[in-house]
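Postdoc handover notes: sequence design on the structure in folder B. Input C-alpha cells:
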C-alpha cells in the first residue's frame, strides 16, 4: 500500500509543479491580449470578453497575482473604450481580486467614484490613496494620488487647488521616471485647463504631450493627444485646423489598429460638417462612424456619437427617427448618471420640439437641460438653451422672459471670453520670445551634437588607420587621401550649413516685421476705445501667430499649410481694414493631392504690399487674386491686385519704399538660396498692369516643384 501511495504523491507533486510553472510562464498581458482578440472576432465582443475573463479568474491554473493583473487589464480596457458603465459593474463585482493590493484597490475605487460623479467621495478616496502611497514610498502611486485629487478639485470648481495638486502630481511623476505617470499627468492637466476655459494653454500642453508620445513611440497616447488637439481646435471654431488633426488621429489609429478611436474621430468630423452646414459630408462621416464601432452600444463614446446623429436628423427634419434615438440614449445616459450626457439629450429633445413648433414642450426640455448643466462648466448646450428659450418666449410674445434669456446668454458668453487685450498681447509677445529662444537653443544644441559626432568620427578614423598600418608608405598615402577627402567634405558641409543658416535667418527676419505690424494695429484699436474690434482681431491674430511659429522654422511646408496661413493672414487684414477689399485664392486640387512643398510665407510679403502700398485699404472695390498652378514643371504663383500700381506707390514716403524694397530683397535672397541649394531656376517678376487699361500690380513667382515624397535635407 505504501508504494502506490508514494507513486500517487509523486504524481500529485508533479502536477502541482507543472501548474506552478504555468503560472509563471504565461503573463496576464498575454492572456488578456488573447481573450481580447478572440472577443473581437464575435458579434458580441463585450459579452465574449467578459465571459472569457470569468473563465480565467475561476480557473485554478493561474496565480492570484495573475488574476490581479487580469482584473486591472479588464478595468483599463473598459476605460479606454469609454465603457464606463461596464467598468463600474466589473469593479463592484471583482474588487475582491485586489484585496491583497490595497493601493491598487483604492486607485480603482477612486476612478469608479469619478464616473459615478461622486466628487466629494472621490476626493476622500484619493486622499486615502495618497496616504497609502506615501507610506509605501512609491513616487508613481503618489503622482497618481495627487492627479486624482486634482481632478476631484476640478469637478468641485476649486481652480487654484486643482492646479496646485496637478503640479505636485507632475513633480512626483518626473521623480518616478515613469513615462506612463508623466503622460497621465499631462493628459489630466490639459483636461483641467480646458475645464476652466484655458483652451490655449490646454492645447499647448497637448502639443507637448503629442511630441513626447511620438518620441517614445506610444501610439495610443499619440492618437489620444492628436484627437484632443482636434477637439480643442473645434471648441474655438478653428474648423480647418480641427479637421487636419482629426485626419492625423485617424491615420495613427488605422496604422496601429486603435479601433476604439475611430467612432470619436468620425463624430468630430461630422460635427465640423454640421457646423458648416455640409449635411452630405456630415452623413458620410456618420455612416463611417457606425461602420467603425465594434464595442457595443453602451460605450459613452457611442452615445455621444448617436447624439451627433440626432443633430443631423433634426437638421434634415427627420424627427421620427430622431425621437427613437433620443429615447434610447436618454435611458443609457441615465444608467451612466452622466450629467453632461443628460443635459445634452434634453437640449436635443428641446430642439426637436422647437422644429415641430411645440413651444411648451420645447421650453420644458430646455429648462430641464439647463437645470442639469448648471453645475457644469458652460458649454455649447448651455448657450444653446438660453438662445432657444429666448426664441420660444419671443414666439409666445413673452418678451420680458425672452430678454432675460438673451441676457443670460450674453452673460455666459462674457464669462467665457478671453483675457483683456493688453494682457493677451503681453502673453503673445512673451510666448513668441519664449518660442524663439527655445528654437535657438535647440538649434545650438543640434550644432554642438553634430560637431561632437564629427570629432568622434575623426577619432575613430585615426584609430583605424593606426591599427591597419603595415608599411610607412601605405600609411602616408592613406593619410593624405583621407585628409584630402575630409577637407573636401568639410568644405561641402560648411557651404551647406551656411546656406541653411542663411535660410533660417531670412525666415526669422520676416516674422518679427509682420508681428510688430499687427501689434500696432491692436494698439491703435485700443487707443480708439474699440475693445470689441481689438478682441476679435486678437483672436484671429493669435491663431495666425500660432501657425507662423509652428511653420516658420521649417525650410518647406505643404502648399495646403501655406494657403491656410494666407487665409488667416488675409482674414486678419480684412478685420483690420473693415472689409475694404476682397480676395480669392485659387489652387488646383492635384497640387494639394501631390502634397507640393513651398517655402513658408513666400507669398505673404507681396500680399502685404498689395494691401499696404497698393492702397487696397482705401480704394473702392479693392481685390487681390492669388493663383497657384503647375507650369513648365515648376510651381507657378501669380498675385494680382487692382491697387494704385507701383508708380503711384513710389510717390509715397521713403519709409514705405524702404519697407517694400526690404521685403522684396529678403524674398529675392531666399529664392537665390533655393536656386543654389536645389539647382533650380526659381524667379520673381513684378510688373504694372497700366498697359492693360487698369491699374494694379502683377507678381509672378516660379519655384521648384517639390513634394513630400522627394528626398531632400530640410534641416
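Designed sequence:
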Amino acid at each position: 500500500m505504501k508504494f502506490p501511495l508514494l507513486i500517487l504523491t509523486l504524481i500529485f507533486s508533479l502536477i502541482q509543479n507543472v501548474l506552478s510553472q504555468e503560472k509563471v510562464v504565461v503573463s496576464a498581458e498575454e492572456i488578456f491580449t488573447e481573450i481580447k482578440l478572440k472577443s473581437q472576432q464575435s458579434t458580441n465582443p463585450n459579452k465574449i470578453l467578459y465571459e472569457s475573463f470569468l473563465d480565467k479568474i475561476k480557473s485554478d491554473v493561474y496565480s492570484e497575482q495573475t488574476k490581479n493583473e487580469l482584473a486591472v487589464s479588464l478595468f483599463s480596457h473598459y476605460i479606454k473604450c469609454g465603457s464606463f458603465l461596464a467598468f463600474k459593474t466589473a469593479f463592484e463585482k471583482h474588487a475582491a481580486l485586489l484585496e491583497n493590493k490595497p493601493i491598487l484597490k483604492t486607485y480603482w475605487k477612486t476612478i469608479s467614484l469619478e464616473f459615478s460623479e461622486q466628487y466629494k467621495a472621490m476626493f476622500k478616496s484619493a486622499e486615502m490613496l495618497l496616504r497609502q502611497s506615501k507610506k509605501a514610498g512609491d513616487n508613481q502611486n503618489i503622482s497618481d494620488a495627487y492627479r486624482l485629487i486634482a481632478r476631484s478639485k476640478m469637478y468641485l470648481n476649486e481652480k487654484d487647488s486643482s492646479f496646485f495638486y496637478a503640479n505636485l502630481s507632475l513633480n512626483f511623476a518626473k521623480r518616478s521616471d515613469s513615462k506612463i505617470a508623466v503622460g497621465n499627468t499631462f493628459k489630466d492637466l490639459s483636461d483641467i485647463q480646458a475645464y476652466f476655459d484655458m483652451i490655449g494653454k490646454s492645447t499647448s500642453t497637448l502639443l507637448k504631450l503629442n511630441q513626447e508620445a511620438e518620441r517614445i513611440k506610444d501610439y495610443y497616447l499619440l492618437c489620444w493627444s492628436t484627437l484632443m488637439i482636434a477637439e480643442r481646435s473645434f471648441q474655438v471654431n478653428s474648423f480647418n485646423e480641427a479637421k487636419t488633426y482629426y485626419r492625423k488621429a485617424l491615420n495613427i489609429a488605422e496604422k496601429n489598429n486603435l479601433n476604439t478611436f475611430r467612432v470619436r474621430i468620425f463624430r468630430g468630423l461630422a460635427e465640423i460638417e454640421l457646423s458648416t452646414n455640409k449635411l452630405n459630408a456630415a452623413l458620410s462621416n456618420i455612416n463611417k462612424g457606425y461602420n467603425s464601432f465594434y464595442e457595443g452600444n453602451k460605450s459613452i463614446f457611442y452615445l455621444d456619437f448617436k447624439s451627433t446623429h440626432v443633430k443631423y436628423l433634426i437638421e434634415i427634419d427627420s424627427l421620427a427617427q430622431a425621437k427613437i434615438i433620443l429615447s434610447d440614449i436618454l435611458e443609457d445616459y441615465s444608467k451612466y448618471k452622466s450629467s453632461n450626457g443628460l443635459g445634452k439629450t434634453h437640449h436635443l429633445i428641446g430642439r426637436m420640439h422647437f422644429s415641430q413648433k411645440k413651444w411648451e414642450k420645447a421650453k420644458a426640455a430646455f429648462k430641464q437641460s439647463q437645470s442639469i448643466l448648471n453645475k457644469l462648466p458652460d458649454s455649447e448646450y448651455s448657450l444653446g438653451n438660453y438662445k432657444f428659450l429666448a426664441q420660444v418666449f419671443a414666439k409666445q410674445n413673452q418678451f420680458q422672459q425672452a430678454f432675460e434669456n438673451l441676457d443670460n446668454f450674453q452673460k455666459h458668453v462674457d464669462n467665457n471670453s478671453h483675457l483683456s487685450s493688453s494682457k493677451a498681447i503681453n502673453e503673445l509677445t512673451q510666448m513668441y520670445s519664449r518660442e524663439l529662444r527655445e528654437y535657438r537653443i535647440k538649434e545650438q544644441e543640434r550644432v554642438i551634437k553634430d560637431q561632437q559626432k564629427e570629432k568622434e568620427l575623426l577619432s575613430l578614423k585615426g584609430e583605424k588607420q593606426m591599427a591597419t598600418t603595415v608599411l610607412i608608405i601605405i600609411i602616408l598615402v592613406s593619410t593624405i587621401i583621407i585628409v584630402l577627402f575630409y577637407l573636401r567634405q568639410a568644405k561641402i558641409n560648411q557651404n551647406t550649413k551656411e546656406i541653411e543658416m542663411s535660410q533660417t535667418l531670412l525666415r526669422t527676419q520676416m516674422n518679427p516685421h509682420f508681428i510688430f505690424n499687427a501689434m500696432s494695429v491692436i494698439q491703435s484699436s485700443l487707443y480708439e476705445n474699440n475693445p470689441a474690434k481689438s478682441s476679435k482681431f486678437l483672436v484671429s491674430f493669435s491663431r495666425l501667430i500660432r501657425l507662423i511659429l509652428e511653420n516658420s522654422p521649417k525650410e518647406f511646408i505643404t502648399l495646403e499649410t501655406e494657403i491656410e496661413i494666407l487665409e488667416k493672414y488675409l482674414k486678419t487684414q480684412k478685420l483690420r481694414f473693415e472689409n475694404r477689399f476682397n480676395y480669392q485664392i485659387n489652387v488646383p486640387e492635384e497640387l494639394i493631392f501631390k502634397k507640393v512643398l513651398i517655402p513658408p510665407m513666400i507669398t505673404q510679403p507681396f500680399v502685404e504690399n498689395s494691401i499696404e502700398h497698393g492702397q487696397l485699404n482705401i480704394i473702392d472695390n479693392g481685390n487681390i487674386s492669388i493663383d497657384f498652378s503647375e507650369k513648365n514643371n515648376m510651381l507657378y504663383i501669380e498675385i494680382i491686385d487692382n491697387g494704385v500700381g507701383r508708380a503711384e506707390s513710389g510717390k509715397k514716403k521713403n519709409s514705405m519704399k524702404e519697407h517694400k524694397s526690404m521685403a522684396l530683397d529678403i524674398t529675392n535672397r531666399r529664392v537665390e538660396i533655393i536656386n543654389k541649394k536645389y539647382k533650380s531656376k526659381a524667379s520673381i517678376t513684378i510688373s504694372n498692369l497700366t498697359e492693360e487699361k487698369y491699374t494694379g500690380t502683377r507678381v509672378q513667382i516660379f519655384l521648384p516643384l517639390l513634394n513630400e515624397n522627394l528626398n531632400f535635407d530640410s534641416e
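Context for whoever picks this up: The longest strand covers residues 622-631. Don't rerun without checking with the PI first.
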